[in-house]
UniProtKB/TrEMBL annotation, chain A:
<dbReference type="InterPro" id="IPR000595">
    <property type="entry name" value="cNMP-bd_dom"/>
</dbReference>
<dbReference type="InterPro" id="IPR018488">
    <property type="entry name" value="cNMP-bd_CS"/>
</dbReference>
<feature type="domain" description="Cyclic nucleotide-binding">
    <location>
        <begin position="478"/>
        <end position="597"/>
    </location>
</feature>
<keyword id="KW-0411">Iron-sulfur</keyword>
<dbReference type="InterPro" id="IPR050294">
    <property type="entry name" value="RnfB_subfamily"/>
</dbReference>
<keyword id="KW-0004">4Fe-4S</keyword>
<feature type="domain" description="4Fe-4S ferredoxin-type">
    <location>
        <begin position="635"/>
        <end position="667"/>
    </location>
</feature>
<dbReference type="Pfam" id="PF13247">
    <property type="entry name" value="Fer4_11"/>
</dbReference>
<protein>
    <submittedName>
        <fullName>Cyclic nucleotide-binding domain-containing protein</fullName>
    </submittedName>
</protein>
Automatic annotation (TrEMBL), chain B:
<keyword id="KW-0472">Membrane</keyword>
<feature type="transmembrane region" description="Helical">
    <location>
        <begin position="21"/>
        <end position="41"/>
    </location>
</feature>
<feature type="transmembrane region" description="Helical">
    <location>
        <begin position="93"/>
        <end position="113"/>
    </location>
</feature>
<feature type="transmembrane region" description="Helical">
    <location>
        <begin position="259"/>
        <end position="285"/>
    </location>
</feature>
<feature type="transmembrane region" description="Helical">
    <location>
        <begin position="53"/>
        <end position="73"/>
    </location>
</feature>
<keyword id="KW-0812">Transmembrane</keyword>
<keyword id="KW-1133">Transmembrane helix</keyword>
<feature type="transmembrane region" description="Helical">
    <location>
        <begin position="119"/>
        <end position="140"/>
    </location>
</feature>
<protein>
    <recommendedName>
        <fullName>Ferric reductase like transmembrane component</fullName>
    </recommendedName>
</protein>
Length: 815, 286
């Protein structure tokens, strides 16, 4: 007869450990099952000495295990101790292979064939999954390892790193970095290139190879591992390499399959979807609970609180209020209507269309990232041209959209239950119209991240948002007093397409009358002149293209190509033609827009005849800038190298106005025709850095700047995600002596970023966590970006692409 | 479209063209006014620093000099608020040039071997070195940019270190006499060097050039070259020669962009000292 428990907890991370400790405290018969030989593998695998942060700071910790920010070793040591003293029944080196049965009688099959019985199961296995293992002969040898803690540990060894992702490359470079360690490092890659890795890592790897510090074997895979050697299948046949250690970094398989095999349903097929859970963390299989990162809570404090809560629920304390109750309560105080938190959650969920399908747990999480506010009649919610990427839902009352920029009396109403602000969310551009409350109303403001999460987890919300966006985008683009009802057939014909960077949506000379509206991203228009493609203009999100052929009944006059991965809405040409025929005002507007575009084409072509070189330069500079990612930028720093004297005053100014750390590297970056794009943030429409920020610390500010707030936990995700390499991890240097004492007495390092040596010598405490730093466009400083203010020759300029990729560039090329 | 182009154009003006040559215009008006005052006011017995016009011009000149000196401070104080260092530079250049007219008129062309003329001469040195600087700023950035391509100074030096490592490794199997030649390139070869070398980019007795000549001679002399080692060394030395050329041109251009400041700034301090002496002595002997 196998052992039987009241609760089996799988995974010993912060969530599982906290659950086990609380179960021990309540005296429940429990077991904590961990597949490795230590607690909390994810944090165990952090780099040695890494600072572990405790965010969000306003959340109180409710757990029988202590936790505070500190070094990885201190945190892990504390947990080991607490687990021991709490009397946690721990089962290490054990993997759960299958979970069968139902509430009250689950059977867990463990590695090694043993089974145990449990009344309830808590899944707290995180999202890290299992590393893919070596499957060749000898793959389970003890000198094959799947992580690398400290590269400095190994000396005088033949080490083979397998896998060509970032992890493998970083390990290989780390092992070969110090020649004093005398390691012979080889990296094995199954394919012919390093397509999965970051560009900087690949460059670093190639440089290390060129310097003779390591070797790279491409198109090779291991076939046999034996003591001292590894046999490798290469393009040119088999080779036997000396090998004392294998570091396999071949990615990992996410745990979703296993979880689904236990009968747990996910909220959608989306890759980022989470399991469907009740307010007590119970999954669709009764008796099986899911907590922690797997449930969608990646932060340690959340996880630990959930571990505590889930045990309380299992023990029968259903009335327990979640630990985030005070936060929500605070968010909701001051609103009219005296409702409890639960009542508010229901109120919002029922009354806002896109929230209808949310579970109470999702609703709680959603509200943590959102704000609920009451607006009085006539109050402005946001102004035209404000920056902002949040979405608003109307829970009570209604609002008015000022559709005309000049006359605030022309308005369109939006009723209760609907949403607004979605254009900013989708395109990342500034607000298109001013919105004010038509009556007293209650609005819920959804941050961009929460809105994206919502769209990923609730398909109905995604459909509703997409439909409304298309309608609104068309109304805003065409203007001219069009109403929603007029667009019926056009919206019905609409089809959202994703266009990859560089792909064409319209080809010059082809037949076609469809219209394309750019929902996100941007496009460039090119025309073949004298056999060469010449850049005509740049189309930001929110513009439309393709009407020329339709109105003229001609072939396409130019090619339209995606400058960056974009979403476009394809509209049927006939439906648009019909719309034009019944809306003479719209026809007139379209003709006006077309005339402006045609003037530009004519201008370019006329210049082409008179001085060809100018157009060539104009076109190639524009193409260069688009290649540099200016197409997705909203504001980019450019340096005119015909004026730059290399004084680096821009960098010094940047450092001196931001805690002594410069956020730009003037000299690095690409240059074309004396136009230099330095390594500095472009404030992308859809910032890549925001994609995976655990504390949600990256925001778009009121002036359109993308900035990182103080809740940064220093994980480095944003640094890795930025394709332009403009974010770096660093700690704030100590305060410098004043400029006056530098000028008169020579004290301190002078203007600009102090050297590492100086900072190290004058550091007050050794323990300062590294945080991500990037350009914030000097938000909050009157006078604008310091780099531009401090340029003595006028070489540094900041531009937005739709302004810069225009005739102005032609003037520059000419002069 | 036209207004937008004009707006962007303004962003793109260098310090000389700043705001439609605003400071050139202001400086010109100042000079013409000074000249008119000098010519129209009938000073007795003759125009000099002691007349009303002379005092006025002297005061304007002295204040201008003090204000122009403040650029050094303005550049380093990154304060908040709306200011443009480009506008300051523009004003510095044109008002600095206007000093030639204002102060020359202030002297009344009475020059001699005294502290007053010393101040005048120092000021002319400052202005002339400034003109040199303006010419350098106007012409050299293109050269700097074209030479460096997309390489940073750090990358250039790192590239040289990489070549040195490869040379070092490649020279291991050579005869002692031959590896001595390669050592010459590794040990007696600098990118920067002294003032002369920096400013001219000429490095006489450059170890790399000598190593290249020597190893090439070795090859021409038909010495045995097992494993083509010597040919590899020659190609590495040639690559290093090219890399050195780029790095030295970079250093040279940067040095030329800065060297005038080594006259301009010390001369400014000397000028302020002489100016103080000039003013004190004038009022002392009043």
């Amino acid at each position: 007869m196998s052992e039987s428990f009241r609760v089996a907890i799988i995974g010993s991370g912060p969530a599982g450990l906290s659950a086990a400790a609380h179960a021990a405290k309540l005296g429940l018969r429990h077991v904590l099952i961990e597949k490795t030989d230590h607690l909390s593998d994810t944090i165990f695998r952090y780099q040695r000495g890494k600072h572990v942060m405790a965010t969000p700071s306003q959340l109180v910790l409710r757990s029988d295990v202590a936790f505070d920010a500190g070094k990885r070793e201190a945190v892990l040591g504390r947990w080991d101790e607490d687990a021991r003293s709490a009397g946690v029944n721990l089962l290490l080196n054990t993997e759960v292979k299958a979970i069968a049965g139902a509430a009250g009688a689950f059977t867990l099959t463990l590695s090694g064939g043993k089974t145990i019985q449990a009344e309830t199961v808590v899944l707290a296995i995180g999202t890290q999954g299992n590393p893919n293992t070596m499957r060749c002969e000898g793959g389970n040898s003890p000198w094959v390892q799947y992580s690398l803690d400290d590269p400095a540990e190994y000396v005088d060894e033949h080490i083979i790193v397998i896998g060509a992702g970032d992890a493998g490359i970083e390990n290989a470079i780390g092992l070969a970095a110090d020649p004093e360690q005398r390691n012979t490092v080889t990296i094995l890659n199954r394919s012919a290139d390093f397509a999965r890795a970051k560009d900087a890592n690949v460059k670093g790897l190639n440089a290390a190879r060129d310097a003779g510090r390591l070797s790279i074997l491409l198109e090779s895979s291991p076939t046999k591992i034996e003591p001292g050697f590894m046999t490798v299948e290469t393009r040119d046949g088999e080779a036997r390499l000396p090998c004392n250690r294998v570091i396999a970094r071949m990615g990992s398989s996410p745990p979703r399959k296993f979880i689904e095999s236990c009968g747990v349903q996910f909220s959608s097929d989306d890759r980022e979807a989470f399991p469907t859970l009740s307010p007590t963390f119970e999954s669709t299989t009764p008796g099986l609970y899911v907590i922690g990162a797997l449930a969608g809570y990646p932060l340690i404090k959340h996880c630990m609180n959930q571990g505590y809560d889930v045990i309380e629920f299992i023990a029968g304390n259903i009335a327990l209020k979640p630990a985030d109750e005070p936060i929500l309560e605070k968010k909701l105080t001051g609103l009219p209507g005296r409702r409890s938190v639960a009542e508010w959650l229901d109120f919002l969920r029922e009354r806002v269309e896109i929230l209808n399908d949310l579970s109470p747990l999702q609703m709680r999480e959603f509200l943590l990232d959102s704000d609920v506010r009451a607006y009085a009649r006539g109050e402005v919610v946001f102004q035209r041209n404000d920056a902002g990427s949040s979405l608003f839902g109307i829970a009570a009352g209604s609002v008015l959209v000022e559709v005309s920029a000049t006359d605030p009396s022309i308005t369109v109403p939006i009723a209760q239950g609907s949403i607004f602000g979605e254009v900013g969310l989708i395109s990342g551009r500034r607000r298109g119209a001013t919105i004010r409350a038509a009556e007293d109303c209650i609005l819920v403001e959804v941050s961009r991240l929460a809105a994206l999460k919502l769209m990923a987890s609730v398909p109905a919300a995604k459909r509703a948002i997409n439909r409304i966006t298309t309608e609104r985008l068309l109304l805003q683009m065409f203007g001219s007093g069009l109403r929603k009802e007029d667009l019926g057939p056009l919206v019905a014909s609409a089809e959202v397409m994703t266009v990859r960077k560089g792909d064409c949506i319209i080809k010059e000379g082809e037949e076609g009358s469809d219209i394309f509206a750019i929902r996100s991203g941007s496009m460039v228009i090119e025309k073949l002149i004298g056999g060469k493609p010449v850049f005509l203009s740049y189309l930001p999100a929110g513009s439309y293209v393709g009407e020329m052929a339709l109105i003229d009944n001609s072939r396409r006059t130019a090619t339209v190509r995606a400058a960056i991965k974009s979403d476009v809405i394809k509209l049927d040409g006939n439906a648009f033609r019909w719309l034009l025929s019944v809306q003479p005002e719209l026809l007139a507007k379209a003709k006006r827009d077309m005339a402006a575009r045609r003037d530009l084409n004519g201008f370019i072509e006329s210049k082409k005849d008179s001085f060809g070189g100018v157009i060539d330069l104009y076109s190639s500079v524009a193409t260069f800038l688009v290649e540099q990612g200016v197409g997705e930028a909203t504001d980019v720093l450019l340096i005119d190298e015909t004026l730059c004297v290399g004084c680096d005053n821009c960098e010094k100014a940047c450092a001196d106005s931001h805690d002594g750390l410069s956020r730009l590297d003037r000299e690095a970056g690409r240059t074309y025709a004396h136009l230099h794009v330095p390594t500095s943030c472009r404030h992308c429409e859809h910032p890549h850095c925001m994609a995976d920020c655990p504390p949600n610390a990256i925001h778009r500010g009121p002036d359109g700047e993308v900035f990182i707030d103080d809740s940064c936990i220093g994980c480095g995700n944003c640094e890795r995600n930025c394709p332009y390499g403009v974010i770096r991890m660093d700690k704030v240097p100590p305060k410098k002596p004043s400029l006056l004492s530098w000028l008169t007495l020579g004290l301190g390092p002078g203007p600009g970023e102090p050297s590492k040596a100086w900072s190290y010598k004058h550091a007050k405490s050794a323990e300062a966590p590294k945080k991500a730093i990037k350009c914030d466009m000097c938000a909050g400083q009157s006078g604008g970006p310091a780099c531009v203010r401090a340029c003595p020759t006028g070489a540094a300029i900041r531009v937005s692409p739709e302004d810069f990729l225009s005739i102005a560039l032609l003037d520059r090329s000419g002069g | 479209m036209a207004s937008r182009a004009a707006n962007r154009g303004a962003l793109h003006e260098g310090f000389l063209r700043h705001n439609g040559f605003r400071w050139l215009k202001i400086a010109s008006v100042l000079c013409i006014t000074a000249l008119a005052a000098y010519l129209l006011v009938d000073a007795e017995p003759r125009p000099n620093g002691g007349t009303a016009v002379g005092y006025a011009l002297g005061t304007i000149g002295a204040l201008l000099i003090l204000w122009l000196t403040m650029l050094g401070l303005r550049k380093r104080v990154i304060s908040r608020g709306r200011y443009s260092l480009k506008a300051w530079t523009s004003a510095h250049v044109y008002l600095g040039l206007s000093l030639i007219t204002i102060v020359t008129l202030h002297t009344g062309f009475q020059l001699g071997w005294n502290v007053h003329t010393l101040a005048y001469a120092l000021m002319m040195i400052v202005v002339l070195s400034g003109i040199w600087g303006v010419i350098a700023y106007g012409t050299l950035p293109r050269t700097l940019s074209a030479n460096r391509g997309e390489a940073t100074q750090g990358q250039m030096l790192e590239g040289l270190r990489l070549l040195d490592r490869q040379l070092h490794d490649a020279a291991q199997p050579l005869l002692p006499r031959q590896s001595e030649m390669v050592r010459e390139s590794l040990e007696n070869c600098s990118v920067g060097g002294g003032l002369y070398a920096r400013l001219t980019g000429r490095h006489r007795r450059c170890g790399n050039a000598r190593a290249l000549t020597a190893v090439k001679a070795e090859l021409r002399a038909g010495r045995p070259d097992p494993g083509q080692r010597l040919s590899l060394i020659v190609s590495l030395l040639e690559r290093k020669e090219a890399a050195l050329g780029q790095a030295r041109r970079h250093i040279r251009t940067r040095a030329l962009l800065e060297v005038w400041l080594y006259i301009h700034v010390p001369a400014t301090f000397a000028l302020i000292a002489a100016l103080t002496a000039h003013i004190v002595s004038v009022f002392y002997y009043w």
